[in-house]
Structure formats: C-alpha cells, structure tokens
Amino acid sequence: MQIGVFAKTFPGSEPAGVLAAVRDAGFAVTQFTLACAGLPSTPDAVPDDAVRAIAAASDASGVALVALSGT
After folding, report:
1. Looking at the 3D structure of the chain, how many domains does it have?
2. Do residues 41 and 71 touch, judged by C-beta distance below 8 A?
3. Residue ranges of the alpha helices (H) in the chain?
4. I want to staple 67 with a disulfide (CB 3.0 to 4.6 A). Which of 11, 16, 31, 32 is the partner?
C-alpha cells in the first residue's frame, strides 16, 4: 500500500502544476479532483483535451491517479 494525498490539498487548476506539487511533497499517488484541471468537481462531461492534459501531467510527474473524487 502507498500513502497518497488528495490533489486538492495543493493550489492550482492546471494538472501539471498540481501533480508536480504532489510529487514535490513526496507522494507518488493521489486522489484527483477535476477541479485541479479547471473543471467543476462533478461535470456533466469531461472534454477530451482535459483528459489528455491530466494523463500527460500524470506521466510527466510520475504521480499515479488512484482515485477520482466524486464530490
């Protein structure tokens, strides 16, 4: 088991910056919220470009998204 952190703990609405902060705080896993991608926490739809940006930020930072917040 790995100890992670809720991504919203860190400020920002750009996935790359938020996930870099998660990594810099020493975490390799996070529960992500779409608010950290500039979207509502529970949007009706997630644009493809947002999905790509989140995936790219995860890959670049090395932080795995192990859960998605639904609240």
Report:
1. 1
2. yes
3. 15-24, 48-61
4. 31
CA distance 49 to 23: 23
Residue 18 corresponds to which tokens in the numbers above?
A: 């938020």
Q: 4-59, pLDDT tens digit by residue?
A: 999 999 999 999 999 999 999 999 999 999 999 999 999 999 999 999 999 999 99
- DSSP three-state, residue 68: strand
First to last CA, the chain: 24
The answer to whether 32 touches 21, Cβ cutoff 8 Å, is no
Find the Cα–Cα–Cα–Cα dihedral 56, 8, 20, 11, rounded to 10°.
Answer: 120
Range of 57's domain? 5-68
Contact of 31 with 66, CB cutoff 8 Å: yes
Q: Which amino acid is at 59?
A: D
